Amino acid sequence: YNLVVARDGEEGVAMAIRHVPDLILMDINLPVMDGYEATRRIRTNDVLRSTPIIGLSAHAMSTHEQMAKDSGCNDYLTKPINDDILFAKLKEYLG
């Protein structure tokens, strides 16, 4: 897989539309546009509607996870990211 990195939520939405990724790791605390809004905008794009999105945040409260899922994230991981869990999620969504 090729990795594409965005500096903020607005750029992330534009890059997702341009590159049509197989999976998106969405930081929730992004500048310009947060990850919740970026995910909602990505989900309005017909081509990206089913792209798996894993929300990433330092917030470990269940309310934050629910907010991420309500915005369109398929899954949610808290920072610091456990490599074994991340790779298991990548395998789950990418095969």
Question: Would you kindly provide a written description of the structure presented here, covering whatever features stand out?
Answer:
The longest helix is centred in the last third of the chain and has 12 residues. A three-stranded parallel β-sheet has the order 1-2-3, with helices on both faces. The protein is α/β, with parallel strands linked by helices and 95 residues long. Helix 1 runs parallel beside helix 2. The protein is built from four helices and three strands; from the N terminus they run H-E-H-E-H-E-H.
What is the radius of gyration computed over CA atoms, rounded to a whole number of angstroms? Answer: 12 Å
| Structural class computed from helices and strand pairing | alpha/beta
DSSP helix fraction: 40-55%
Strand content: 5-15%
- CA-based shape: globular
Number of helices: 4
- Mean of the pLDDT scores? 96
Largest sheet: 3 strands, parallel
Number of strands: 3
| Regions with little confidence, pLDDT below 50 for 5+ residues | none
Distance between the terminal alpha carbons, to the nearest Å? 12 Å
The largest beta-sheet arranges its strands as 1-2-3
Q: Order of SSEs, N→C?
A: HEHEHEH
